[in-house]
Amino acid sequence: MKTCYIYIRVSTDEQATEGYSIENQRRACKDYADMNAYHPKDIFADEGRSGRNIDRPAFQKLLSTLKENPVEAIIVYKIDRFARNVGDFSNIRKQFQAMKVKLLSVCENGDVTEGLIGNIFASVAEWESEANSKRTKDALMQKFRDGWQPSPPPIGYRSVGGDRERKTCEPDPHEASIIKELFELYATGNYSILEIQDWLAEKNIVSRTGTGLGHSVINNILKNPFYFGKIRWHGESKKGNHVPIIQKDLFDTCQYVLAKHRDFLLRRRTHDFLLRGFINCAECGQRYTAEWHKNEKKFKSRGGKIAYYHCPKRDRNNCPSPYIEMTNLEKQVAEQFKNMQFSEEFVNLVLAKAREKIEFNRQSASSQRQAIMNLRTSLELRRNKLEDNLLDGTIDRETYRRKHSEIQLKIQVADANLKEIEDSCSIDMNLIEEVLAFTRNIHQTYIEAPKFLKRHYMRFFYERFEVKNKVIVKTIPTPIFLKLQANHAVIIRNEMLRGEDSNLEPCR
């Protein structure tokens, strides 16, 4: 009996098409081999591979196997399963002719290696490939114009409805809340991406292969504007129709953390010290490090341990800087805030801006809320009419399901927008409250702030502190702090720093 190999292929888009499924091709090719007295020695299958080039694993394996173990023929379901490029087809056909191997096509019903017909079929296949590619690109671009992300949604969403480019998405019932919490945790500045990795693994958020999400994957999640409602496609961006998981304010905070804290937030830390990255040695310029010293008896009154900041060059480069206790140094930093105050003029300016912001938010929220409520009422009326049409039998089930799903999705988006407006008003007031407290009493606000916010306050005013003999001897202000001083927006108790009277005077 004559021998042959069978080659079958489906691209990603065609796997949903019944006529081109792997099993259908396999069955048709085997039937064709039986009818023409060929014995298939092996079957080579490329799944999810484009036919526009020959760099396909199974196809390359077929060619190498053919050289080692020749057969009389290669059977394919259709010539475009074999190649969609005239140049590739012509080159492979010449190789087959030299080896006296026939290329048999089920759909073209015979040998396509001989004469002009092979090149004609390959030309048609290439044209079809280009036409399909153009149609797909146009459909995806139209999907983007309609407000939907053409590519599959990111973690936290799931695809729903339609086929291929007609699919939309919605928040995943399990993953969406976890992704939102991911952003909230990272925005505090207290978590590194490595720690977020462990946290996600505990929540059973894993990759498609079942492994934990990689560092770059989490980094991409944090940078993806899709989560607050923006879609992007081929250099363009716009507001999408999908339901956002987070608000833009939270997303922007995470971008700040990623950009500003990259030097120290991406490292896994056993202990999280408040002043890490802010203290430098005045003797040698080295950045201070911190560590816990444990001794159950010696430090019994302190829970068996005590923390110190110190210059890392002290023991190995003869730097004379001594160890300084954590609470001592942190208290000195807090005293820096005690000795400064915003001017009355600046505070009044902040108050005026706050009132202006609150009033604007109220008016804006009210008008937006009313517009969305009107839209929602209109959508509910359309939905009710559609349901009545189904009951009356004036609409078929397929049309009902499609239109009902579209209306429900728009109602969900409207509800999400309403919630976003309410949350935005709440967040704005919380922010204004914090800003007002900060301008009225810098020191007290700093003392009462959580650790991550203390670091933000320090970073607002100071680049670093320099320490000598356990005392802060120099402060390096930030450009914005210098600007506030130059404009007399901040006043400093200079005499108080010298232990004299506590009169306030503008900082020169």
Structure description:
There is one protein chain. The chain is of the alpha/beta class. Among the domains are: about 1-140, Resolvase, N-terminal catalytic domain (Rossmann fold, 3-Layer(aba) Sandwich); about 155-265, Putative Large Serine Recombinase, Chain B, Domain 2 (Hect, E3 ligase catalytic domain fold, Alpha-Beta Complex); about 345-420. The chain has 17 helices and 18 strands. The protein has helices spanning about 20-35, 55-70, 80, 85-100, 115-145, 175-185, 195-200, 215-225, 250-260, 260-265, 325-340, 345-390, 395-440, 440-450, 450-460, 480-485, 495, and strands at about 1-10, 40-45, 75, 100-105, 110, 155-160, 170, 230-235, 235-240, 280, 290-295, 305-310, 325, 340, 460-470, 470-475, 490, 505. The strands form six sheets. Strands 2-1-3-4-5 form a five-stranded mixed β-sheet, with helices on both faces. Strand 15 (about 460-470) and strand 16 (about 470-475) form a beta hairpin. The termini are far apart. Mean pLDDT is about 80; it is low at about 15-20, about 265-270 and about 495-508.
